[in-house]
Specification:
Number of strands: 11
CATH superfamily: Vaccinia Virus protein VP39
CATH topology: Rossmann fold
Strand content: 25-35%
Order of helices and strands: EEEEHHEHEHEEHEHEHHHE
Bound molecules: zinc ion
Oligomer: single chain
Radius of gyration: 19 Å
Largest sheet: 8 strands, mixed
Distance between the termini: 20 Å
Strand order of the largest sheet: 4-7-6-5-8-9-11-10
Number of domains: 1
Helix content: 25-40%
Shape: globular
Structural class: alpha/beta
């Protein structure tokens, strides 16, 4: 079991009725939407940290249509490969729970007893995740201060979210793994070509980190064809280019009726020594 821990005193939290409560009686209500907020007020940098609601809705709509299902399957298969019959999974930066749900369903289909948790700094995203996967436990929390017990997680998923090696090392069991999912060099290449005169490839990083061993590198690549303007807009809103690409090019792209684009990812598997 990988219990949530109290953000005030770090003691394990247990569910009592509609709250999580620690032995020092710090109590955190489970919201009507099914998640708990374990982000201490002093760790918030704004009233509503993380991805904003429009971005969350755009991403949820886009992912739910299956454009990145090849990545979901890759993550599911790796979680299965690196877990035993009883497995504790933490999706760190779970967003709307698209990948979290896939992993839970895969592990359950394989006859495993999967206990799955997801955390994200965005309350709007976590609310969708909790609704999507009732069997999971979801908390609003920071990857830099994981509300999770030491040495309790078998498989940790880190999909396009901050790499917090110190915290990953703390919560993973010895021999446990984390999946580090990053965009490959040519990910969204055609979209970048539409936005920039001189697009750059994403840098390829294949690094060793202290306390971990890189044991596998898996590519999840396919070209997707988007045949409508709504989905192109949603994809664009998921990217950082919203903030830093020329406005005129954005306008042209956002009026396009179709787009063929690379959905290229790399998953690095690191094992805790
Ligand atoms: Zn406490």
């Amino acid at each position: 079991m990988a219990n949530f821990i109290c953000p005030v005193c770090s003691q394990p939290l247990n569910i009592k009725e509609k709250s999580y409560i620690c032995k020092n009686r710090h109590s955190f209500d489970i919201s009507a939407k099914g998640y708990v907020n374990l982000l201490p007020a002093n760790k918030k940098h704004s009233a509503a940290p993380g991805d904003d609601k429009l971005m969350v809705v755009a991403r949820n709509n886009f992912l739910s249509l299956g454009y990145y299902s090849h990545l979901k399957e890759t993550i599911e298969n790796l979680c299965d490969k690196y877990s035993d019959k009883n497995v504790s999974v933490l999706d760190c930066g779970c967003g709307e729970g698209y990948y979290t749900q896939g992993v839970y369903e895969k592990l359950t289909q394989q006859g495993k007893n999967a206990e799955i948790k997801g955390i994200d700094i965005s309350k709007d995203a976590v609310a969708i995740a909790a609704k999507r996967l009732k069997e999971g436990q979801f908390a609003v929390a920071s990857s830099f201060h994981l509300p999770i017990q030491n040495n309790s997680v078998n498989v940790l998923i880190n999909c396009f979210s901050p790499l917090c090696l110190k915290e990953f090392g703390r919560v993973l069991k010895k021999g446990g793994v984390f999946l580090y999912v990053v965009p490959a060099p040519k990910h969204l290449w055609q979209l970048k070509e539409a936005l920039y005169e001189k697009p750059y490839e994403n840098p390829l990083k294949e690094e060793q980190y202290e306390g971990f061993e890189l044991i596998e590198t898996v590519k999840a690549e396919r070209e997707i064809f988007i045949d409508n303007n709504t989905d192109i807009n949603n994809l664009f809103k998921m990217t950082p280019y919203v903030y830093r690409s020329p406005k005129e090019a954005q306008e042209v792209l956002l009026k396009a009726e179709n787009l063929t684009v690379n959905a290229h990812f790399i998953v690095y598997v690191y094992k805790k020594k």
